[in-house]
From TrEMBL:
<protein>
    <recommendedName>
        <fullName>Radical SAM core domain-containing protein</fullName>
    </recommendedName>
</protein>
<dbReference type="InterPro" id="IPR007197">
    <property type="entry name" value="rSAM"/>
</dbReference>
<dbReference type="InterPro" id="IPR013785">
    <property type="entry name" value="Aldolase_TIM"/>
</dbReference>
<feature type="domain" description="Radical SAM core">
    <location>
        <begin position="193"/>
        <end position="409"/>
    </location>
</feature>
<dbReference type="GO" id="GO:0051536">
    <property type="term" value="F:iron-sulfur cluster binding"/>
</dbReference>
<dbReference type="GO" id="GO:0003824">
    <property type="term" value="F:catalytic activity"/>
</dbReference>
<keyword id="KW-0949">S-adenosyl-L-methionine</keyword>
<dbReference type="InterPro" id="IPR058240">
    <property type="entry name" value="rSAM_sf"/>
</dbReference>
<dbReference type="InterPro" id="IPR051198">
    <property type="entry name" value="BchE-like"/>
</dbReference>
<dbReference type="InterPro" id="IPR006638">
    <property type="entry name" value="Elp3/MiaA/NifB-like_rSAM"/>
</dbReference>
<keyword id="KW-0479">Metal-binding</keyword>
<dbReference type="GO" id="GO:0005829">
    <property type="term" value="C:cytosol"/>
</dbReference>
<dbReference type="Pfam" id="PF04055">
    <property type="entry name" value="Radical_SAM"/>
</dbReference>
<keyword id="KW-0411">Iron-sulfur</keyword>
<keyword id="KW-0408">Iron</keyword>
<dbReference type="GO" id="GO:0046872">
    <property type="term" value="F:metal ion binding"/>
</dbReference>
Length: 464
């Protein structure tokens, strides 16, 4: 009888609530933790009986290093698909070395923001690492296991110690099978989810926009077919999920496909509420009305700055007026709006940051997320930081959330940026009128408990 190949999908343990997925590793600013989408999408490519699959999410399950190792060793995987983040780089490398020491014959492939450049060096420096998944939206590692020649999105070391790189190409919409959400057993949550359990869904990959501070613009944009997405949504409802977090970088980017999905949700009376990321120049009134009717409760928009010249410099390709108009329209339609704001870019002054905080209030955002700029690998923003002497090229450990500030601006120190970020949250969230409006907007006891818990952890994170 043919024995199934044993594949482990691993989110390694950590001292903090690390979010390592989708090339954006960070410490959870509050208490949120979505399903790790890299691992989630990879599960869609492997099926029984040929493969015996197990997910161990050590962060979600709050496993210690010792307990994590015990679980992994007991499963005896032939292959491990794991996550590796810049925010937890030292801990991750140490843990994977322990795994390889115990399971010498297991092939380990990892995905993460810590692995998006200098492939030869990273494979040479990490002998426990056998392959780097450079595009988790592709089935390259499965093709590697099956010794196929049609490999995409994978870098690996062959038996002659040579690095082989297979780049991903732009492709037609992918008709992949639904990811295996039922394998993920952790307590997954988002601060704006109003029902549980919550599922993470990815309808497209990367982003076609050229924002220089973001790694997504350097990756090949791809989307799934409407059929693939709808089949996943059907499965999630049948499995009892109550809330959907669409983790696309730009929801509604593929308009025809998204229209098909949303119209199906409406016609089928899908009934689940959901949230997503998008852009202020992508969503017009027609799209917003359709989203609201299909159950959208909140949209996260990358606002970033209050100055048009900065939006031009970092190639956001929209204006502050776009932001004002879309936030006002979303409010009128009845969809809550979260604005993300980026502080600490090279040359930015205190006055500019205070202006950004004031803008978050002016546009009447329901929620605001203030992030400190991080010079992520393989971005032109990192090159800018290097050229201005703000960082050293050896810098690898970075926290995308900005809980630990990576660099100053040349005008402001790291300590000053940390202080400004903390004050941004206090200034935005502790306004008496804001607090009263938030309380009035809550629909049930569940939402109240979620808001209190998330608020507690958020303020605790930067007051320590």
């Amino acid at each position: 009888m043919h024995q199934s190949k044993r594949i482990l999908f691993l989110n390694p343990p950590g001292q903090k609530i690390y979010i390592r997925d989708y090339y954006c590793s960070k410490v959870s600013k509050a208490y949120y933790l979505p399903q790790p989408v890299d691992l989630l999408m990879q599960t869609s490519f492997f099926n029984a009986p040929e493969y015996n699959l197990l997910v161990i999410d050590c962060i979600a399950e709050k496993l210690s290093v010792e307990k994590s190792l015990e679980r992994i060793i007991n499963f005896k995987p032939d292959y491990i698909i794991g996550l590796m983040g810049s925010v937890s780089l030292t801990e991750d490398v140490s843990f994977y070395k322990l795994v390889k020491k115990q399971l010498k014959h297991a092939v380990i492939a990892c995905s993460g923001d810590a692995l998006l450049d200098k492939y030869d060096k990273k494979l040479a420096d990490n002998l426990w690492l056998d392959a780097i998944i450079t595009n988790f939206y592709k089935d390259g590692f499965k093709q590697f296991i099956e010794k196929s020649t049609a490999i995409e999105g994978l870098v690996y070391r062959d038996r002659f110690n040579k690095t082989i790189t297979h780049q991903s190409k732009r492709s037609k919409p992918l008709d992949v099978k639904p990811p295996k959400q039922n394998l993920f057993k952790g307590n997954y949550r988002m601060p704006f989810a109003n029902a549980f359990p919550m599922a993470t869904v990815l309808t497209n990959y990367a982003c076609p926009y050229p924002c220089t501070f973001c790694i997504m613009s350097t990756l090949p944009y791809a989307t799934r077919t409407s059929h693939s997405i709808i089949e996943e949504l059907k499965t999630l409802k049948a499995q009892g999920y109550k809330f959907i977090y669409f983790s696309d970088q730009t929801f509604f980017q593929s308009k025809a496909i998204t229209n098909d999905v949303l119209n199906w949700m409406i016609k089928s009376n899908y009934g689940l509420t959901w949230m997503c990321f998008s852009r202020v120049d992508v969503l017009k009134e027609k799209e917003l009305l359709l989203m609201k009717k299909a159950g959208c409760s909140l949209i996260m928009f990358g606002v970033e700055w209050a100055e048009d010249n900065m939006l031009v410099h970092y190639k956001k390709n929209y204006t502050t007026q776009h932001v004002i108009d879309t936030f006002a329209l979303s409010k009128k339609i009845g969809i809550k709006r979260l604005g993300t704001f980026l502080i600490g870019v090279p040359g930015q002054s205190k006055a500019s940051i205070l202006n950004t905080i004031a803008f978050a209030k002016k546009i009447d955002a329901d929620y605001a997320s203030f992030n400190v700029a991080v010079p992520r690998s393989n971005t032109s923003f990192r090159e800018e930081a290097l050229n201005k002497g703000l960082i050293d090229d050896a810098l690898q450990v970075m926290d995308q959330s900005g809980n630990q500030v990576t660099m100053g601006t040349g005008v402001l120190s790291r300590e000053e940026l940390q202080h400004l970020k903390n004050n941004a949250y206090i200034s935005f969230y502790l306004r008496p009128k804001y607090l009263w409006n938030r309380i009035k907007s809550l629909n049930n006891w569940m939402e109240f408990k979620i808001h209190v818990k998330e608020g507690f952890y958020m303020f605790k994170s930067f007051l320590n």
